[in-house]
Amino acid sequence: MKTLDRRDCRILSLVLAGQWYWMIDRGEKTEEYRDRTRYWETRIRKWWRMRFRTPHKMIVEFRFAYGPNAPRMAFEVVSVGSASGFAKHPEWGEPLTPHYVIVLGERVTLV
Predict the structure, then answer these.
(1) pTM here?
(2) In degrees to the nearest 10, what's the CA dihedral of 110, 77, 19, 91?
(3) I want to staple 9 with a disulfide (CB 3.0 to 4.6 A). Which of 52, 59, 90, 95 is the partner?
(4) Confidence category of residue 39, pLDDT binned at 50, 70, 90
């Protein structure tokens, strides 16, 4: 597992419920989904566009629920795309409505 300095990363922080957090933690789920709403469109596009402007690593950091000492894990991001009207992985919670697909790469440690 690589160790990365937070200052060298562009981090998208996401909060997950138990089932999805633990599936990603075990390596079973390799993608994360967010509805294609105005909120997520703005947030994801603004974050993902940064990869062209800076040499920073693109990281998604997951947190289990909202507690101050909640477990966290981070992954490099391979790609971000969109899908509409179908779900390749319904067992991973992929919705049938238009959504963003964040493809996870290598797990990293942030310091």
Answers:
(1) 0.89
(2) -170
(3) 59
(4) very high
